[in-house]
């Protein structure tokens, strides 16, 4: 891996390069996505089935688009008892974590008859998009369905592209069934997003769409936002490791590569104050590349977006970490808790040499659907909060309103909204 001294120029160049990975930088695909969405909106099932045949090479129609109980049963047999056992253990951890995020309605009443409060309501119907093919990750199925289920969503619909044989990845089906998906449809790509957003004869319209996908899926979600809610526009994976001279270079290198193997656009960055560690990590990376199965993808990822940055002070390290706002941030320092308290921007923070990033991907419990491309400055991980909405509650007695009505009327008149003022005033006419 390349080793660079962290200075103002390096920082600016790095931030500019990382931003090129954003889905917002791929406008050339937007016209194709818009055409797909418009056809699905107007032609519904007809367009959905034709696009499935065109892109997934599968013959899907109204009679076979929904996954059957028999297909789910077959999926369990193909997945095997060992994977089912692991999925259930992971599910228990994920569910336990998300149950602590639940929010409840509250009401505050006063003797004068004032009642104020907040009513928390789960969304009615949510669509979960799950990629197919090589990107079929049952762990992501759990991470998207569990918080929706925990929030109390009435109906969870999952869409995922079928293979050429018209079947869905068995591991995906097992994870979806274990997590609690209500209905699973064989549909993928921008056309599936359109079906969820607008509704077709086979797939009902949802209130919100969550889940990762390729650039077409990301742009489709962006385009339908407003017709429905979405979780976020997901970009390529990324990891930053903050380490000092106490860190184990082999651990650091292994963790950097755990994200670089996702795809050529993935980013892996080490920031350290130790030149000796930087050189040792670079050597370890070279060694791992001789062993790992996805070495070709990793090399391209590191060539494009892999960096080892040498900083002069720990303050500089923290500054660049907050500026980049990485999806995954590992802290391998003498006192990781101190560093953690000074981090403002990160999707998930892993503390200490045994909190490796894949622990969060699969098993620990916190959600692995995280903000990317610097959006951790204002977005949070997927959570139960994403599947609820809140309504304000206001109740006043005549006595309570009488104490404030003149102020309200004066405020409304100051804004030249006389009908607003009148709405209050008529209640106190003699």
- Rg for CA atoms: 25 Å
Distance between the termini: 82 Å
Helix amount, in percent? 40-55%
Strand order of the largest sheet: 1-11-10-9-12-13
- Kindly report the oligomeric state of this protein: single chain
Mean pLDDT rating: 95
Low-confidence stretches: none
**Helical run tally:** 18
The SS-based structural class is: alpha/beta
Task: Report on this structure.
The chain contains 18 helices and 14 strands. It is α/β, with parallel strands linked by helices. The strands form 3 sheets. The protein has a 6-stranded parallel beta sheet with strand order 1-11-10-9-12-13, sandwiched between helices. Strands 6-5-4-7-8 form a 5-stranded parallel beta sheet, sandwiched between helices. It has a 3-stranded antiparallel beta sheet with strand order 2-3-14, with no helix packed on it. Helix 10 crosses helix 11 (275-288). The longest helix is centred in the N-terminal third of the chain and has 19 residues, at 81-99. The chain is globular, with a radius of gyration of 25 Å. The protein starts with a strand and ends in a 5-residue tail after the last helix. 41% of the residues are buried.
